[in-house]
Amino acid sequence: MVSRNRFVLPVIVSALVVLAGCGGNSNSITNAVAPPSGGFSKSNVNGTYVFSVSGTDNSANPYAIVGTFTANGSGSISGGTLDINDASFTPTANSALSSGSSYTVGVDGRGQATLKTSTPFGTIVLDFVLQDSTHGLVTEFDNNASGSGTLDLQASGTSINGSYAFLFSGAYGTSGSLASLVTVGNFTLGAGGAISSGLEDFNSSIIAYPNETVSGTVVAGPSSTPGTQLVATPSGGSAQYTITYDVYPIDASHLKFIEMDANGTLSGDAFAQSSTSMPSNTTLAFTVLGGTSSTVVASGGFMVMDANGNVMSTSTADINNTGTFSPTPATFSATTTAGGTGRYTLALSGFTAGTSYVAYPSGGGLLLLEIDNSGMMAGNALQQSSTASLASSQGYALNLSGTNLGVNTGQPVEVDDIAEFATASSGTNLTGVTDENYAPGAVPNYALALSGNYSAPDSNGRGQLAANAGNSNNGTLNGGFSLTYYTVDGTSFPFIESDNGQVTVGAFLKQN
Question: pTM here?
Fold first, then answer.
């Protein structure tokens, strides 16, 4: 794994999730739990942070937010800006945070940032859990929307240059006429930040537009405001997307993008593409999320790469297809073909979540998108360096995001969880706390007791974790979760949910 603990969790707007909804009440502590343990405090959030969330608002429209806030280490937020794009209103760019914005951090690393804004969302509450003082996992935790993202300490004086690979997802069109859209690609910057070369693949509601070209300019702005826009104008192919983005640099190797035109709500990450070669003689842990117009699908497992960057037949994949999970992973293989600089196609055999993918190597892993016109899967694969199990007496930060299939709501909804759990000093038990939001129709549910156990990973690095969340009177929509996880390095554990009530992907990260 080249870029530390940074996971791509694309929010793919399935036809199952474009639903009518309603608002709810403000969040409150709803279930008494034992005091959490840990060593975090407000001082662990100090400096300027880039944050992102994307998902579904409470009118069932897709949305995305990317921005910054400057924390003083003692609970106050002194400044920052954000961009918000929601299919139900005109995008708001570079909106300054209002006075009175603040944040909290508990000893377990769970905290909330209350951002006062003049946007249509008004006050935005971000619920987060820290891995350390530089990185955290985020959900939106108010009655505006539910979505997931990340929180990262921003390096000062960042200069954007070189080559990057990216993965953006969301929707394209206007409210009432929306198409799910995911795009993956790369670009190389020349003089003045102008894109000198670039390639891009699109999947629009299961229709692929592969191998387009990209133009535009990408330049870093001041630390607290977005940089100059990237304009992606495909040419030489059949796609007709001209998309304008703002860019928020985290550092020179990791950028956050958000679409800021009125045509869609894409957002996502770009990572330095220091190598344009496919990984070889190694194993990659992967997760992908998506589906079709009638299914919601998550898949995860291991790609075993040979010396030529092909996927060997010893590779394995789990799949959760609309709540049906197979307990035995299937084997698969793939032939890799170069399709331009830093771009490859995978012809898959035995893989139940698609037959053809495009792949771009990057510092954030191998970025993946299905392009076979039979589905709409996207995600990433991270190089495995260890199959180590969870450590004892250790805290972990967790985020999951995806679709609840209608458990306790009567209709599928976007669901997003933030949690922190600690392993026991001996054995495989765990305890912790989880916060959950969903949309449409959410009432954020805060501080639910989490308890369960995990299995040590097998020789490939595949393990299980299951936990109950809340109690019989009050809990999460699904009453907890069962996860199949994949060890990357003993610190990072991507997973897919493996019960029959939800289809989600996520990660848990060893806290420091």
Answer: 0.93
